[in-house]
Design goal:
With about 250 residues, the protein is mainly α. Among the domains are: about 50 residues, no CATH class; about 100 residues, no CATH class. The chain contains eight helices and four strands; from the N terminus they run ββααααααββαα. A two-stranded antiparallel sheet has the order 1-2. Strands 3-4 form a two-stranded antiparallel ribbon. Strand 1 and strand 2 form a beta hairpin. The radius of gyration is 38 Å and the shape is extended. The termini are far apart. InterPro entries: mtLSU_mL37 (IPR052482).
Length: about 250
């Protein structure tokens, strides 16, 4: 049974809801109404506190002393929010306000009358590397040039580089928090088996992240040996190696 609480300047009165058919005095009616009003007020205040976060009072804290000792520049959040970026006004080209870069006709500066095909990461090569060589008009070369092979032999990877390579693999296979629905696993030897659906990092994301990390490591290594990426030096080294072999023979 719910209790109605009414407040008096000198006393606190707890009243029970009246029974059906009971005749109440004006004072009792006033106490019941005050108790119901106070209960509703508490209920609505709790709802406002829970839902309307803007009504909560913001306490102004002092800047921590360690930040002041280090000389960290402190900005007022209200001043930062007041400095809103206002774009400069500009006139859209006519007609229909569509720039030429988005048009699919001769008005586009990148337009060419002769059609061309573009190879991107989502292109499916039916013949593998042979298909890619035909599209790019290149010749497959196995191994490294002689100059780069000499650099690889002279500059072996240390423990720091090996740890960086392991860290790049761990960033993709262990530390990546991407969780998407992976393709359903199928066992050809047991086609009747129904495996639970797996979630994890997709293969295309793993490959792109690993290649990007290894490319970054290669750039860091070649910055220490800049002559390794010099094509002229590579050609000269190859020519010198060929001449030495001729002299030796």
């Amino acid at each position: 049974m719910k209790l109605n609480v009414s407040f008096h300047p000198q006393r606190r009165v707890v009243t029970r809801p009246p029974k059906r058919g009971t005749v109440l005095s004006p004072l009792a009616l006033h106490e019941v109404d005050c108790g119901a009003a106070h209960t509703n007020e508490i209920y609505f205040r709790k709802r406002l506190w829970k839902n309307r976060r803007t009504l909560r009072r913001v306490v102004k804290f002092r800047t921590p002393q360690p930040l002041l000792d280090k000389g960290v520049e402190i900005h007022d959040a209200l001043q930062v929010a007041a400095n809103e970026f206002v774009p400069e006004p500009f006139d859209l080209p006519e007609p229909h306000g569509r720039p030429n870069e988005m048009r699919q006709d001769s008005r586009n500066p990148d337009w060419h009358d002769h059609e061309a095909y573009i190879v991107h990461k989502k292109s499916r090569l039916l013949e593998g590397d042979k298909h890619m060589c035909l599209l790019t008009k290149t010749v497959r070369y196995d191994g490294l040039p002689t100059a780069l092979s000499e650099h690889v032999r002279l500059h072996t990877l240390g423990e720091a580089q090996q740890a960086a390579a392991k860290e790049a693999l761990a960033q993709v296979h262990l530390y990546d928090c991407t969780q998407v629905k992976l393709p359903k696993r199928i066992d050809l030897t047991q086609p009747h088996m129904s495996f639970p659906r797996e979630f994890g990092v997709p293969v295309d994301r793993k490959v792109s992240q690993v290649l990007a990390s290894y490319h970054h490591l290669c750039e860091k290594l070649t910055s220490q040996v800049p002559e390794a990426m010099d094509r002229t030096a590579c050609l000269m080294w190859s020519a010198m190696s060929a001449s030495k072999r001729q002299v030796c023979t």
